[in-house]
Amino acid sequence: MANEHGISEKELNAILDRLVKGKAPEEIMGQGGLVKDLTRRLVERVLEGEMTAHLGYEKHAHEGRNGGNSRNGKTGKRVKADSAEIDIEVPRDRDGTFDPRMVAKGQRRLPGFDEKVIALYARGMTTREIQGHLKDLYQTDVSPALISAVTDAVMDDVRAWQARPLEAVYPVVYLDAIHVKLRAAGHVQSQAVYLALAINPQGHKELLGLWVGEAEGAKFWLSVLTELKNRGVQDILIAAVDGLKGFPDAIEAVFPETQVQLCIVHLIRSSLRYVSWKERRAVARDLKAIYRAPTLEAAEEELEAFSAQWDSRFPQISRIWRAHWANLTPFFDYPPEIRKVIYTTNAVESINAQLRKVTKHRGAFPTPDSVRKVLYLAIMKASERWTRPMSDWTSALNHLSIVFEGRIPV
User: Using alpha carbons only, what angle is made at residue 168 by residues 166 and 172, rounded to the nearest 5 degrees?
Assistant: First the structure.
């Protein structure tokens, strides 16, 4: 059976066998090997084909003799490819009107080279590390300025992604932040990167945007939420957040009907700060009885039992839970499969963990845009493996449509 190029697999294998017969690995893959030579020949073949299409006749055809524009020799050019630097010959025409597409005028990199640089950048490698990596693998000298130019082109995609229109309604939005080191005015400072991860009406995870700010605070979150509204978000049913002071008020200012669900995991971490290592397991077990209770009434009883057991030792814990009770307990309105999704920010925490992998070895970022580039590329790569947070989204959506009657578009 012929492939999409009209060559059968048997014929292709026979060609490859003849090409590699009797050759050592370095003669095939080495600096001056077969792969490099084939790449050069293929590129030049394509360029000759483009010239034929441009002039309207084959090379050496009689139509080109004294018939106006014609071939006029070749120009040497060195280009960077995935595997090495390659010297090619680009055909010229007498009128100077030939504009090749395979290797455009001024182009010094073959298709695929930029993608390789961007892929390395997305893995968290610095400009210098990418430079060394390409040198070690391909004996290709690539300047830091070229790598920066390639990755800077990503910013157009980042800006378009960050400004894209959003859905009118999102059933669940998780709001969280990670921190990175950023160099500013000669000093290294900790900067917050704000993330808004949604479960969209189709039940899939969707990162709505990322924002770089000086420090995590309710005031900055207010500006983030305002931007989401300006991009088309009219309603958020449930916002899952950590225990940042003023966060619920910031959400209510922009989306007054949104149900705020504080993250139980964050609250447990805050609670256990008051407890010695020796007693943390027992305290955590009794806190679990509260949020794993079958009903709100049962949870209130478990909180009272926890208070009776531990207030003499750790009075701050039950005080914190009571102070946040209204925003801690909305998840009791839902069945277990929805509860697990909204009472923790695990969905966005898992993304944070993936982002930290690409930032932890980089030291300080030089600019906010460098942060945006790296995190955007990491997010695009990670999103290829995202799965639905809820396996039975149809049932979950039906339940939400009852609780939030009239707020989910039909």
Answer: 85
Indicate the helix (H) or strand (E) that contains 281: helix 280-291
Residue count of the chain: 410
Q: With contact defined as beta carbons under 8 Å apart, do 130 and 121 qualify?
A: yes
The yes-or-no verdict on residue 56 having pLDDT over 60 is yes
263, 344 Cβ separation under 8 angstroms: yes
Give pLDDT, residue 346. Answer: 76
Q: Which residue has the higher pLDDT, 76 or 43?
A: 76
What is each CA distance from 169 to 258, 295, 405, in whole angstroms?
11, 28, 13
In angstroms, the first-to-last Cα distance of the chain is 48
Residue 7: is its pLDDT beyond 60? no
Start-end of H helices in 66-213:
113-122, 127-138, 144-152, 154-162
Give the residue among 387, 278, 401, 266 at the shortest CA–CA distance from 327.
266
- The C-alpha atoms of residue 253 and residue 260 are separated, in whole angstroms, by 12
Q: What token pair was written down for 320? A: 């914190």
Distance, CA of 248 to CA of 53 (rounded, Å):
65
CA angle 285, 289, 295 (to 5 degrees): 170
CA pair distance 48, 50, nearest whole angstrom: 5
Confidence of residue 347 (pLDDT cuts 50, 70, 90): confident
**Bridge partner list, 241:** 262
User: Could you give the percent of the chain with pLDDT greater than 70?
Assistant: 75
- Tell me the torsion sign for CA atoms 15, 18, 19, 21: positive
pLDDT band with cut points at 50, 70 and 90 for residue 371: confident
Q: How far apart are CA 348 and CA 296, in angstroms?
A: 26
In 3D, which of 327, 356, 352, 340 has the Cα closest to residue 243?
A: 327
DSSP 258: P
- Domain residue spans of the chain: 10-111, 113-152, 166-403
Task: Tell me the C-alpha distance between 180 and 365, whole Å.
Answer: 8
